[in-house]
Amino acid sequence: MSERGVQDASEKLALKEVYYEGSDTLLTGYALCYNRDYGTASAVDLHRAWRVEKPATANLGWFAGIVVKTPSGAGPYIVVIAQPNGGLVNCYSDQNCTLGTTKLAVKNGSYALGAAGSATINVGTAFQTIDRSGTNGLVMTQLEGASLIQVDAMALVTPT
Questions:
Q1: Cα–Cα distance, 23 to 67 (Å, whole number)
Q2: 9 Cβ partners below 8 Å, 6+ apart?
Q3: pLDDT per residue over 39-86, tens digit each?
């Protein structure tokens, strides 16, 4: 406890277990997107609420979160992600970051967050000044709210 009674490292994160369907070895700090087009397009399929994959052009609008806990080895497997809720989390990035200024986005074909721009989906703001432009590495990032097209389908399901 600190002198104010606030416990150190007590950032409130929105954690969720998801199924990573890829075959890569995931690291803490990697960005993942939902596979919202899983299965047959005309079918109701709740797998779209918890299946995740590597960011790609087709899924950039469905940012799921940042890996915070993963088993060792290559996927597929269950991983724990921090969902965007305004909390601080370490994220892989390839940007030269300035605390509170640099906007970060998911990008095609990469687990690392990149530069935010008109063709990207902004998902966070760097909360550390560090240059990761030479080598991808961890950057403390404030994850920002999900875009309007993102919905946690499991939150909409009511048991019968």
A1: 15
A2: none
A3: 676 777 676 788 999 999 888 889 999 999 888 899 999 999 999 988
Q: Which residues contact 156 (CB under 8 A, 6 or more apart)?
A: none
Region of 73 (left: φ > 0; alpha: ψ -120 to 50; beta: rest) is left
Sign of CA dihedral 5, 11, 12, 15: negative
Three-state secondary structure call for residue 127: coil
What are the structure tokens assigned to 74, written together?
């290559």
User: CA 123 from chain center: how many Å?
Assistant: 8
CA separation for the pair 121, 84 (Å, rounded): 13
Answer left, alpha or beta for residue 27, where phi above 0 means left and psi between -120 and 50 means alpha: beta
More confident residue, 6 or 49: 49
- CA angle 60-64-66, nearest 5°? 105
Q: Partners of 124 in the beta sheet?
A: 104, 143
The 10s digit of each residue's pLDDT in 66-75 is: 999 888 899 9
